[in-house]
Structure formats: structure tokens, C-alpha cells
Design brief:
The chain is α/β, with parallel strands linked by helices. The strands form four sheets. The protein has a seven-stranded mixed sheet with strand order 4-10-9-8-7-5-6, with helices on both faces. Strands 11-12-15-14 form a four-stranded antiparallel sheet. Helix 3 runs antiparallel to helix 11, helix 5 crosses helix 10 and helix 15 packs antiparallel against helix 16. Bound molecules: pyridoxal-5'-phosphate (PLP). Pyridoxal-5'-phosphate binds next to helix 5.
Length: 443
């Protein structure tokens, strides 16, 4: 077991749990150890602070607070009103907008409410082709968004000789809006490494008479820190998660500057989509927004971006292709076939996990392989940056990734050997950068 961080406060709640239910405590402790000793490169994950986690595990979980501050369906909500109002105020300050709804249980619910507030069942909305970077709530067939609404899709530039290769094709956005006259134009993605031009999207939405929704689930932390252009004042509605680059608890958030839209959003979320809000999670959101308002959060986001650039450059040096030629944000898509035609995302993800490097397979733009195989890996730096990794560690990670994948292509016995060696080195590096909540998980 790695050495616990001596600076972290001892955590009574974990001791309480261990005494009351050792079976659950044991599994949680193992997960703590896994996070502690592995390199987390999943672009949508992060390590929330001890304060965020403490707020998430309190008496606030005991209360029904259906409704909104000042207008609840249950008595006894006085402190819940204060807390929800505080969370709202901090969110508004953080993103520079007039209205915030902090109740969405997660990003998908935020999108569902935003859609219900702006569309009727059967209405059309335009979004990016899902397999090229969209989210399942942007029109996947089995999701509410593809069942109750009619998604039409725009594309990236797929032509290799185009200077904007693998970036948003704004002509295609315009063409799809002209043809289908969607009620909503949706931008913001799950696997897009470049800056989003919100002003241009608004221009196209206005031409088509559509409302612009910006889903900043992935880049919310960068936006909050001013390290990615803000969707305000361009987007009519902004939706996000709170647990990705924003580093809060698992949850969602919806914002707008428009009073009428705000009313429609509030109605759509409750009672339209959800019942009672998760007040313990809203407490933790307030803590996370408070953390993001502090000056060191900007330095953190700058380091996230610097780290992503170094990791992308390192992998390029080792013969991999980074789609669109690099990254502007916290993530990158690695085209593995540039290194070897037979290399798949599925194999790469499994091989790297044996070495303690956690990633997810992901399609690359125009990927000929199906989603369960893929030709690419999506890598992100929010989590590793939280534990204090900088440029030097990113270069080592790039080299480890190539070592493991090269071994995997040579066969099982070579992979076995190399994965063991790298696993030991990864453990050692992680032990030098303990997570802030080390004692929570295995004191
Ligand atoms: C992650 C994500 C969401 C929401 O995900 P949840 O798992 O429901 O929190 C929504 N949109 C985009 C673009 C995302 O990447």
C-alpha cells in the first residue's frame, strides 16, 4: 500500500463505515487503492477534493426538497434553500450568467431538461455525428434524445488535404440547419480536442431561427478558468456536468441569461424530468464552485492544457497520430493505426490497464472500426494534473504507452514482461504524488 498523505485530515466517516459495514468499506478501500496506484487518463474523470467528498456525505442526503428555493413542496427546507441559493450564486459568478439550475442529477438529465424546455416530441435538433465526438444524449437511437426527438447531424472535415482536417465543418452545420430548420442547434462534445467557436455557431443558429445549446460537459473547468472561450453570451442555454474538468461531485448544471428560458428550464427539470433534488450533491457542487472561483484553479487548468500538449507531442514522437494534429484543450484522440495497422483501441485499452494506465478506446473521425473495437484511444489530463503531474511525468507516460503497446503487438509473453515492469514504475510514480484524499480510502 502507498504511504498515506500525512497532511490529509484523518477521516472519521471511513472509520465509522468500516465499523458498521466492513464488507462495503473493504470494496471502497480497494477502489481507493486502485485510484491511488494507477494513472487515470480517462478524459471525463477527475479526483474531487476531500472537501467536495465530505460535503457529498452529510445529513443533506436526508431531506426531500422538491421545488426550488422559497417554493418547496415540503416543510423544513430552510437550510436547503440557503445551500441551493449559494450553489446557484456561485455557479452564476463562475460562468458569468444570470440564471443557474443546480439540480440536474447528471449531464444527461441537464440535456433532457434543456430539450424539454425548447422542443416538443418529434421536433428536430442538429448535433455532431455521434461517433465523431458527440455524446449519447445528442441523439443516439436508444437514448431519450433519439427516441423522443429527431436528431439531424453535421460533420467534421474528413478530407485529409483540408487545412481544417478533423475539425468542425461549419459549412456542414449551416447546410444541415438550412435543410432541416431544427428547433435547436447543439454544440459541445465528448471527444473533440479543439476550441469551439461559439460565436460562429450562434450566427448559424440565428440564420436558421434555431436556439443554440452549448453542452460544455467536458470543458467546463477550462471555461470556468477562462482557458477556453465562454459560451456566453452566444448560447441561449448552457448545459454541463460538474464532475469532469470542473472537478466537483458527479452531477449536472443548466445555465441561461434569458428569463423566460430559465422558467421553462426549471419547469422542465422539475417536475418534468426529476423528482427531489440530491441536496448532498448540491452541497458538494457549491464547494466545487467555490474551489473553481479561487485563483489556483486557473493555474490548475493551465497545467491541464500544458500537460495535454506534452502528452500529444510525446505520442507523436513515438509514431502515433493525434487527430487534427494536436490539442487545444484537456484531451486528445490517438489514431493507433498510424503506429500499426492492426492496433485497435480495444487491445490498447486492455494492455495499458495491465500496466496501471487507465484509458478508454474511442473511435477516431470516420473510423472504419465499430465502437466496441475502434482505431483510437481518448486520453485526457484533468485527473493526472490534479495529483500533481507536470510536463516531465507526461513525457514518461507517453514513453510507457508506447512501450506497452509495442510489447502487446509482439505477443502475450512480451506483453506480460513489459506490463509488469511498467506497472511497478507506475506504482512508484503514483506513490510520489499521493491523491489529496489518501487517508479517506485506506487509513
Ligand atoms: C459526459 C457528457 C455528458 C453527460 O454525462 P453524464 O454521464 O450523464 O453526466 C453530456 N454531454 C457531454 C458532451 C458529455 O461529454
Amino acid at each position: 500500500m502507498p504511504t498515506p498523505n500525512p497532511d490529509a485530515a484523518p477521516d472519521a466517516s471511513m472509520d465509522t463505515l468500516r465499523a458498521a459495514d466492513p464488507e462495503v468499506a473493504e470494496i471502497i478501500a480497494r477502489e481507493g487503492e486502485r485510484q491511488e496506484s494507477t494513472i487515470e487518463l480517462i478524459a471525463s474523470e477527475n479526483h474531487a477534493s476531500p472537501a467536495v467528498m465530505a460535503a457529498a456525505g452529510t445529513v443533506m442526503t436526508n431531506k426531500y426538497a422538491e421545488g426550488y428555493p422559497g417554493r418547496r413542496y415540503y416543510g423544513g427546507c430552510v437550510h436547503h434553500d440557503s445551500l441551493e441559493q449559494l450553489a446557484r450564486d456561485r455557479a452564476k459568478e463562475l460562468f458569468g450568467c444570470r440564471f443557474a439550475n443546480v439540480q440536474p442529477h447528471s449531464g444527461a438529465q441537464a440535456n433532457m431538461a434543456a430539450f424539454m424546455a425548447t422542443m416538443k416530441p418529434g421536433d428536430s435538433f442538429a448535433s455532431l455525428i455521434l461517433k465523431d465526438g458527440g455524446h449519447l444524449s445528442h441523439g443516439m437511437k436508444l437514448n431519450f434524445s433519439g427516441t423522443f426527438f429527431n436528431p439531424v447531424h453535421y460533420a467534421l472535415h474528413y478530407d485529409k488535404s483540408h487545412p481544417e482536417h478533423e475539425r468542425i465543418d461549419h459549412d456542414s452545420v449551416r447546410a444541415v440547419c438550412r435543410e432541416h430548420k431544427p428547433k435547436v442547434l447543439l454544440c459541445g462534445y465528448s471527444a473533440y480536442p479543439r476550441v469551439i467557436d461559439f460565436a460562429k455557431f450562434r450566427e448559424i443558429a440565428d440564420e436558421a431561427g434555431a436556439l443554440l445549446i452549448a453542452d460544455i460537459a467536458h470543458i467546463a473547468g477550462l471555461v470556468a478558468a477562462g482557458e477556453h472561450a465562454s459560451p456566453f453570451p452566444h448560447a441561449h442555454i448552457v448545459t454541463t456536468t460538474t464532475h469532469k474538468s470542473l472537478r466537483g461531485p458527479r452531477g449536472g448544471l443548466i445555465m441561461t441569461n434569458d428569463e423566460d428560458l430559465n422558467k421553462a428550464i426549471n419547469r422542465a427539470l422539475f417536475p418534468g424530468v426529476q423528482g427531489g433534488p440530491l441536496m448532498h450533491i448540491i452541497s458538494a457542487k457549491a464547494v466545487a464552485f467555490g474551489e473553481a472561483l479561487r485563483p489556483d484553479f486557473k493555474l490548475y487548468q493551465q497545467q491541464v492544457i500544458a500537460n495535454a500538449k506534452v502528452l500529444a507531442a510525446s505520442l507523436t514522437e513515438h509514431g502515433y497520430r493525434i487527430t487534427s494534429g494536436g490539442t487545444d484543450n484537456h484531451l486528445m484522440l490517438v489514431d493507433l493505426t498510424a503506429r500499426d495497422d492492426n492496433l485497435t483501441g480495444k487491445d490498447a485499452e486492455a494492455w495499458l490497464e495491465r500496466a496501471g494506465i487507465i484509458t478508454n478506446k474511442n473511435g477516431v473521425p470516420d473510423d472504419p472500426r465499430p465502437p466496441m473495437t475502434t482505431s483510437g484511444l481518448r486520453l485526457g489530463t484533468p485527473a493526472t494534473t490534479t495529483r500533481g503531474f507536470k510536463e516531465a511525468e507526461m513525457k514518461r507516460i507517453g514513453a510507457w504507452i508506447d512501450q506497452v503497446l509495442s510489447a502487446g503487438m509482439k505477443g502475450e509473453s512480451e506483453l506480460d514482461k513489459v506490463a509488469d515492469t511498467v506497472r511497478a514504475e507506475v506504482r512508484e510514480l503514483c506513490a510520489q504524488h499521493p491523491l489529496p484524499h489518501a487517508t479517506r480510502c485506506h487509513a
